[in-house]
Hints:
about 40% helix; about 15% strand; disordered C terminus; six-stranded antiparallel beta sheet; alpha+beta; 20 strands
Amino acid sequence: MRWLVGWSSTAAGAAGIGSAGAVGYDGETVHPVGSQLLWGDPDPLWAVGDWRPDEVRVVHADAQHRIAVLGICGATDEELRRGLFTARGGALRHLTTWPGSYTAVVQAGRRITVCGDLAGARPVFYTPWAGGTAYATAALPLADLVEANLDFTHLAALLAAPDVPAALRDTTPYDGVRRIPPGHALVLRAGAREIAGYEPVASLAVAAPPADPDRAVDAVRDALVEAVRTRLAAPRHVPDLDPGPVPGMGPAERRAARGMPVPGIGADLSGGPASGTLALLAAGLPGRPGTLLGHGTGAGERLLAVTFNDLAVTGREAELERAGALAANPRLHHVVVTGGEETLPYADLDGPLTDEPGPSLVVAARHRARLAAGSADHFTGHGARQVLDAHPARLADLLVDRRRRHLVRPVAALARADGSVLVPARVYGAARRLARTPYRAGLEVLAERLMRRRFDEPKGAVGASLAALAWARPGPAARWLTGEALAEVSVLLQAEADRSGTGALRPGDYRARAALARHAADLRVLEQATEIRSQRLHAPFLDNQVVRACRDLPEALRVQPGARAAILRTVLEGAGVADLPAGWGAPSHASTAAAARAGLRAAAEPLLDLFATPLLADAGLVEARVVRKAVRSAAAGEPLPLDGLADLISLELWLRRLLSRRGTCWTGTPTRSRAVPSGIQPRRSALTPGA
Length: 691
């Protein structure tokens, strides 16, 4: 893990003058383990972890005014200096408009500003501490610092309503540690904190002027090309030198066995449109996009394209053929990684502790097998679906803007998939109801559904679209929670309904932003769970400027069937890539579900052992027998929501890893200064006072 951490104290000198640390409980100096100090007291900032030299940049105007940028940022030092001067007056948005993926921290006297990103892939957390506020880009270090216990209400909401921001609020799994929402910045003034949004909010009373589709797609192309070019322009990194030969192994085999990525730049090439777009853009841009000469790959400067071939599950043959056709590009060096039953989901339940839980923990070994053959800088297409596709709730947005005619093609596509003439009327009626339903009423409906345990939803593609036409819906794991846990989340939603709102967001825009935030958070978990030394994963679709360009796409364009593939095809054509294989962009989700079911069937016994005495039961969230029955039923082939079981299993795995860890993220603290110091105390009733 790589993170930055700092704090703002209430008065100069309160944090230990000259020590760049703080005074702990027993008078010792506190500072993070394995850190490099970026600036010192009274409001110090550290970078922690294996940051590359070019990923940490600090630009000074004078002793009291400076800016730190951590990550991949395309701004020059002069642009950073201008940004620092502008930020002194309170303007923040320009700090987030440089190409790349980064976190910017600005110090102007005693005022500290930390900018989060729009997607939520680079979050910012904070907690009260020592009379001031500590902040970090990871939650666990702050939980260690304040000895935070688990927030059981957050864990219950994470299972009952993971896509509902009103249920998750700004909480984290650690009690007292908060996160700032995407699109916001944390502003600290001598210890006092403020959360400030930096994105303009559109009016709900007046429909936005219709955007030109061609110009909007051109903006997406420009943002993507600039995001890829920024990474290509960064210094190339060669992993640690090969320590020597191993009998019977070549250089590539030694590197893979020792977990070392290939020097240079590469990309996923799954056959889907997102990864294919990034691979072709990276290979086609001027310069030397690929692996480095003289480092044992034999690929020269060709871009390393990695395709995963699952031998245990069929259904991706067409995608693999398209990947092979794309790899015929002479600037690509194609590597196919095969995996059998050992790479199925749930096959390997051991792994590192991540900052937060996420459903990707159960598939981490599967992704690690692919990434082990990847490059030191590796492009992934994660996030493309969330930023480009239309959430079904966007149909209600079209009705709000009185653009009914744009519903014809998506509704007709659903009717063809279902084969029923009643589909158009059902979809139009559901979209109309959502367009006329206030946000508060939507939360109240969800609260009642959780209280009454109503989880049945229509089946099939049409059923999924109808279920998504709502402000909020239960999570797939909610059906297995205890009544007390569901009641706790229901009461929370009722309270949020009384005091919260969506500002000026429409239902579809609101649901799409929530889905993007959840995906970005899970991608962050996946990156930590599959971390390979000296490797960096890049997801350009989650860069601020790419997210902004995608949000400007007209809704009438994105709701059309096959819109994502059409947009990316236009992006590639604008970049000079026109020869794409037949069927490029065709959706395929069946193989993912088949792999999940096969992995669950193969790992049924270890999973039953995992839930023999689960920590989730001690927390009062589930009953062990209920989950064991669900695992047996799913392994036997019953139509249960597999993503709900993934949520339950990954959370149980994360809790066990958290409680089995030793040590802390800080030195100079007593041994008790770590998160969840006393473990999970059995909590049979989630509503019991003081539980």
